[in-house]
Structure formats: structure tokens, C-alpha cells
Design brief:
By secondary structure, the chain is mostly helical. Helix 1 crosses helix 2 and helix 1 packs across helix 4. The protein is globular and about 35 Å long.
Length: about 90
């Protein structure tokens, strides 16, 4: 399981692209997901659920609901992975 920034960003980008039915190459890490056509709350929740399953983590709701970009989601995942290692 990848745990460094670039592999996590790549995995998160792939999951986002899958949920948005687009190519990972078209997903900019700094794109505000709230502005993407078709990115509704249900798709965002599915993205988060897939990310949690991919890394066997549970993300805090307050973190999930404050992020807006793929890069921010990646940072939340990395924090959860670092915290999970200590638990």
C-alpha cells in the first residue's frame, strides 16, 4: 500500500477520476471539486468511501467536509495514515 505523497496523490486522483467518469490525466490536483460538473455530494461520498477502503482507514467527517481539492484530500489521507500507524 503506497504511503508517500506521490503514490497517495496518484491513487486519490485515480479514484476521483473514476467517480467523475474521466481520465486521471484531466484531474488537476488543485482543481476545486465543487466546481466540477457532475461532482455532487453523492459522488464525493463515494470517492471518500473508496479512498477509505483503498487504505483501510476512516477519515474524520470534519476533515472530509472541509477539503475541496484532490491535493487537500490527499493531505487528509496522509494524516490518517500517519495517525493510524501510531494507533
Amino acid at each position: 500500500m503506497p504511503t508517500t505523497a506521490e503514490p497517495v496523490l496518484t491513487t486519490v486522483t485515480g479514484i476521483v477520476a473514476t467517480e467523475l467518469a474521466t481520465s486521471p490525466d484531466t484531474v488537476d490536483p488543485d482543481l476545486d471539486l465543487r466546481t466540477v460538473a457532475g461532482a455532487d455530494s453523492v459522488k464525493v461520498l463515494r470517492m471518500i468511501a473508496r479512498i477509505e477502503r483503498a487504505y483501510d482507514i476512516e477519515l474524520d467527517d470534519e476533515d472530509v467536509f472541509t477539503v475541496t481539492t484532490v491535493r487537500e484530500v490527499t493531505a487528509v489521507v496522509e494524516r490518517a495514515l500517519a495517525g493510524g500507524a501510531a494507533a
